[in-house]
Amino acid sequence: MEPRKQFKARNAEKPRTETLTFRLSKRLRSLAEIAARKKGVTLANHVESALEASLEEPIDFLRGVSIAAIADELYDENEAVCFLKRLKKYPWAMTPEQKRLLDLIHTSPLFYPGFRFYNAALITQHWAELSAVASGTADISILPPDLFDGIDVEFALMSEAERIALYQKDPEGCAHRTRDYMQRTKRPTHPGAELRPGI
Question: pTM higher than 0.85, yes or no?
């Protein structure tokens, strides 16, 4: 079966659990409803078909490959597996929440023992705590302290705006925290063989 047909077949089998809410101009909605009636489908089905078709478009920076062609490398029902897939080859595809989670993982020498090397097994094991802290639904205190070896996790999770505010309030303290964080999170380019398996 062709990749495009395989993608559509897999997508058709998935239950519809997600809701997409957005505003349209009155003109666009009216014309889309006409197009949907012409096809004999609902407006929701028409929009879904348009979204699916957009995934087939070649992407320049992927050398002409489409999102649909690499769908299995970009998505998995398991959130931890989905994150690790994107981390390995497609970091540009990460959501803002996944990027924040990556910042958190980068602070730990156990999760991130070497440059571009991640301990996938340990990340999966602690996925619930990591994702809860990164999303802001849980406090940093739920993270096992031995995984971060005294690293200033709060500083690691600050947004750029928060760090600027911190610098404006306490330039010396901010500089100290920055130096300490950079020193503690520096990683060897080639981690030892004992750190594997990982990605």
Answer: no
